[in-house]
Amino acid sequence: MRFTETFRFALQAVTAHRMRSLLTTLGILIGIAAVILTVGLGQGAQKQVAGQINALGTNLLVITPGSSTGAGGVRGGLGSASTLTLADARALASRVVAPDIAAVAPVSQASEPLTAASTNWTTTVVGTAPAWQRVRGRTLLEGRILGQSDLDQVAPVVVLGPTTASELFGVRDPLGQTVTVGSVQLTVVGVLASAGSAGGSASLDDQAIVPQTTAAQRILGGSTRTSAQSIYVSATSASALPAAYQEARTELLNLHGVTTADFSITSQESLVTTASSVSKTLTVLLAGVAALSLLVGGIGVMNIMLVSVSERIREIGLRKALGAAPRLIRRQFLVEASVLGLLGGVGGAALGIGGAALLPGLIGSPVSVSPLVVGGAVAIALAIGLLFGVYPAGRAARLTPIEALRRD
Amino acid sequence: MTELRASTRAMHPARDSEPVIELTDVRKVYDGGSLEVAALRGIDLLVEPGAYLAIMGPSGSGKSTLMNILGCLDVPTGGTYRLAGEDVGTMDEEELAHIRNRRIGFVFQQFHLLSALPAWRNVELPLIYAGLGRTERRARALAALDHVGLADRADHRPSELSGGQQQRVAVARALVTEPALLLADEPTGNLDSSSTEDVLGLLAELSAAGSTIVLITHEADVAQAAGRIVHIRDGLLEEHREGPE
After folding, report:
1. Which of A231, A261, A291 is the last residue of a domain?
2. Quick check: pTM over 0.95?
3. A45 and A101: one domain?
4. How far is A344 from chain B (nearest CA, A)?
5. For residue B101, which residues of chain A lie inside 8 Å, CB to CB?
6. pLDDT of A194 strictly over 90
7. Are residues A222 and A121 in the same domain?
8. Which of residues 89-118 of B touch A (CB under 8 A)?
């Protein structure tokens, strides 16, 4: 017997009870749509988070003081110590010591009120080096970034974030204007371009960048004169990030003369990993729920196939009497169950893709539907039909034609 | 029909020299746990090609068991059954399905037509299991329907046909594989008297054209149509030469 005939018999059986077939496939349909949507939501969230983290800077390592190992005694917590010195930053910038490190920017910052003419605005004042621009991957809207000469001369200059600039100056051109922080008057020499529209970037657009020396000696004071609150390091490339990490760690351990790190290094990669592991956990959880609904859908297929087998006992008996071997009967019911699964899968894929198109507008989350996931989901639906068809098909194949034919 | 038979002969020349049915001391014991029930207690039967045999017996006589064994729906627990020369006693499910498909045409009391399919689709069913192609299946199904006088009803569904017509479709389905044996199990049991005559007339025609027919019935006047009548009682055959020869 040819397979096309088996397929035709299966289609006949499925279309003979349209409503029943529809209801049977509904469980699988909903399950597949749920799988596509949850995986799409998870992937969309991962992409979004990865995009946001990449916006923080390219190939970035952030070194913060304080030990994450907590080697006994009461510690002030991460970042509370002042173990990172400006000398550390200079040492890391050496191409000899750390060939995989492209740029180093020590950063000390505090929230300070800024005054310009009649307006004031409180923002983060960041004291850093020219390399900051490269490390954070920022571009300028107008003016210039800080130069080494600004640091050497302890120049009273500032580069404003776009939000800060508009809050202080509105539509006026901030270049050349004066901003007062405490008793220090700073001249605006540049305005940063926006870090992008990605969520969470508000603070990136609202800050005032001043030379490290100016910040340490005239604005922030205290320990910032000799130490950095954190050191931003960018690796020469994404693949050089692990090497840069090792170089920074080894050099800092040497400089500090310790064997247990009194600092911690985080990479954007680890942020991405953490963020995606969170969204992965969510995706797995949601996919688990979807898998449960698929299981229920599969049981629905099995249930209706068992009903179908007992309803069609006479038909099965007749087919056997006419020469259908048990394996052909089994194949017919397996194909029938697979067709039900496939219908549910295709319907679910359509629903899922439609939902993915509508959902971002409704809940504001990006949904990323990949052809691989859709194809996989349809294949899973087919496999579920097949799997849950095994038992009913086996029962049909084992029916003895004599008893089947004697039924009225 | 003559043409169909002729082609069968040409294809299997050796088989016509052998009996269609050869039962030797056939026994069937049902194992009902502690109780063993002997449904057939040693049956010998020889049916030559072209014969028209009626098997009569009341219910519980072993008639159904004998019909199942003759139809290769069941296997004997003792003795041998040769169908058109082949020993079917040792066959497994797969082989039995194959031999039912090629050698036996069934006609049932309840017709057993698939209600969703038109007449010709019902008739082509055995040919699907025989693995024939679409074109040949349709041609042979239509020829078989023509043979039973229903060429113009090929596209009708069973519900659109009378009982007698439905049984004719069933006969066409039984004939379409050109089987060695036509096995009719109470073929008139669900028919009124005129349809009964109709179907018996058709069987008589087929017999006259050379078909080997075994008719199972409990009605004496139906059995009278056959050239030879055997009775089964308590699992044993008794033969009376009372039918018109």
Report:
1. A261
2. no
3. no
4. 24
5. 322-324
6. no
7. yes
8. 93-94, 97-98, 100-102, 106, 108, 110, 112, 114, 116-117
In a domain, A290, yes or no: yes
Inter-chain contact B129–A2, Cβ cutoff 8 Å? Answer: no
Is A24 found in the same domain as A107? no
Q: What is the DSSP string of B155-220?
A: T--GGGS-HHHHHHHHHHHHHTT--SEEEEESTTTTS-HHHHHHHHHHHHHHHHTT--EEEEES-H
Its domain, for residue A149, covers 82-261
Cβ contact, residue pair B93, A322, below 8 Å: no
Structure-token match 């199972």, residue found: B216
Helices (H), A17-127: 18-55, 86-92
Of residues A261, A257, A179, A164, the one with CA closest to residue A219:
A179
Contacting residues of A for B74, CB less than 8 Å apart = 402
Q: Is A185 contained in some domain?
A: yes
The total of other beta-carbon atoms located within 10 Å of residue B229's CB is 21
Query: Domain check: are A198 and A124 in the same one?
Result: yes
A324 to chain B, closest Cα gap in Å:
6
Which residues on chain A place their C-beta less than 8 Å from a C-beta of chain B? 1-2, 5, 12, 16, 314-315, 317-328, 400-402, 405-406, 408
CB contacts under 8 A, B 143-182 vs A, are 173, 177
What domains, with CATH codes, occur in chain B?
2-10+50-72+98-240 (3.40.50.300)
Mutate which: B28, B101, B104, vs A, most A CBs within 10 A: B101
Query: Is A86 found in the same domain as A47?
Result: no
Question: Residue B112: what residue type?
Answer: H
A349, A36 contact by CB (below 8 A): yes
8 Å CB contact between A261 and A83: no
Q: Which of A204, A233, A261 is the last residue of a domain?
A: A261
For residues A142 and A9, state if they share a domain: no
Judge if A176 and A279 occupy the same domain.
no
Position A29 scores a pLDDT of 93
Establish if A179 belongs to a structural domain. yes
Interface ipTM: 0.87
Residue pLDDT, tens place only, A112-144: 898 888 888 899 999 999 888 888 878 888 888
Whose CA is closest to A387, among A326, A342, A338? A338
Angle, vertex CA B90, rays to CA B88 and CA B96, nearest 5: 50
Domain count, chain A: 2
Which residues of chain B lie closer than 8 angstroms to A2, CB-CB? Answer: 128, 131
